Amino acid sequence: MKIQKTIISAGRTILRSVGDTVSSISGLITPEGWLKDYFMMGIASSGVPVNEKSINQITAWTSGVRLIAETIGSLPLQNIRTSGDRHIKEKSDIWFLMARKPNSFMTSNIFWELVAKYCIHRGNHFSVIIRNNDYKVQEVIPIHEDRSVDVIFSNNRKYYRISGISEILDQDQVLHFMALGDGIKGISLIEYIATSAGITLASQKNEATFFKNGSQLQGVLEHPKQLKKESANRLRKDWHQIYHNPEGSDNRVAILEEGMTYKTISIDPAAAKLLDTLKKGNIDVSRILRLPPYMLMEMDGATYSNIEHQGLEFVKYTLTTWLSRFEREMWDKLYTEKEKRSDELKWKFNVEGLLRGDFKTRMEGYRVAINAGLKSQNECRALEDMDPFEGGDRRWIQMNMMPLDKADQILNRSTIEELLKKAQENEEANN
């Protein structure tokens, strides 16, 4: 019980600031979060530090991480038991923990958002499993990323040394969700994009300085004659004093003399280059996070038809990868050996809601499913959050929509009636 009290005590403080969690010594073995942040990714080739805090300044990255994490957090989680050819959704205590409330201070959507965010940013997320004396799971406590976690691999088992917890935990006591890695620990996705992110951060900084200093040329004055340096400087100074407005809200009318003309410039070449660099950075974020560019508001080449298709690819190639990792880790750590070997239980995040098309497409899909006997009318109504009706649980197939369970009887009767009809026709013909 001592170890459980220690773990729970550590878990209760995971949402506090770094200043409240400096109970362990910060060093090379157990560095605190701020030290890991500083050295985690180091200096990119652009000369700009790239770490979890700095990369959040890239709006495309932050938007992409939020999209993945918040989408996963919104998905229904099911604990499914297979019995023969039936799939039963169990509402057990362990399901309630993982699908509704993993601990006393957090709901499931917040928990899964944290899991996804930590996996993307750090490559790993660790949650301690709290069990009672009967080995029944009571709570799942996420460990804050500012706490250091050492993964020790020994005798074909993993052990975890967590700052703030004196005992070393066995692998059965920790849910370890990870990104692609070496099987022991995952690798942060920030490492893959460090160079591109560094260039983007440097470009954003240059862009801010560029516009802050008023380097964006709005237009040029052309004089029919060649001006001396003194005259040109005086003209520039006078023009700036009369017409320059830092707030940009005063539309003044310029009076031009001596045959001068004013020509506007649509965009400065330097600014255009900056914008192109930033756009390339957004595409790199799209590649690393495996997101369709339109989800990061890069709409070049996007049409209504291919956007719907790309949305399906987001579920298939992006979310499914993360979800299968999470499902397998829960299968491994939350089921008993007997349950695992029976192969009757599995965890499943339900993505059906994300795969739904527009109304017309959904109705066509339901029609095909009902006509083929795959779904009942009430099952289709349930997918649309509609109440069932009496008789709506029967399955139908084609042949004038006969009930599936009466098909043989109807077919036999039709065959008999056809034979009797032919016999009667033959008898009448003979007479």
From TrEMBL:
<dbReference type="InterPro" id="IPR006944">
    <property type="entry name" value="Phage/GTA_portal"/>
</dbReference>
<protein>
    <submittedName>
        <fullName>Phage portal protein</fullName>
    </submittedName>
</protein>
<dbReference type="InterPro" id="IPR006427">
    <property type="entry name" value="Portal_HK97"/>
</dbReference>
<dbReference type="Pfam" id="PF04860">
    <property type="entry name" value="Phage_portal"/>
</dbReference>
